Amino acid sequence: MCLIKRNLLLLLFCLSGCSSDLLPSDKDIRTSQVDEQKVSFRLQTTQGELLESQTLLESADALVLYFTMWCPVCDSHMSQLSRQFIPVYGNMRFVVVDYVSGSVSQSLEAQRASGFLGMTIGVDLDNEVTRTFRGTMATVVVINKEGRLLLNEDYKDGARLKQVLDGLL
Question: What are the strands, taking DSSP E only, across the chain?
């Protein structure tokens, strides 16, 4: 009976959509190649907009990217972003990067099902942004107004993100 419960728990975990490491490291995953250049990218949103990093930074002090797989861990982080960060850091632009859905329509459906219609969701159709930042589940990236990368690591509890954003105020 214990074996059946253990296998059932393992199956439920696998089906939850979280295939990345759920115990993130403290290591900053920025690459020297990204650090030494200004960051530039484009993303299609679920609302049909084309987001360009330079344009976003013209009207914001920084750009915050959060990479999602639409799993329970990401849901928790995105809820924290929408409740505790977006209202406080109104001069920053927050974009959730969907790198798993595969199409704008699938991403919009995931956004609706998760209840995050008020957030900006960028769909990384060709995985260019994901490759640039080596993004995985729960990667958070901060780019300053000059286009320089300030943070690129696993989200964890949001403390490091708060520290970086507070430094921009």
Answer: 42-45, 50-52, 62-68, 92-98, 121-123, 139-144, 149-154
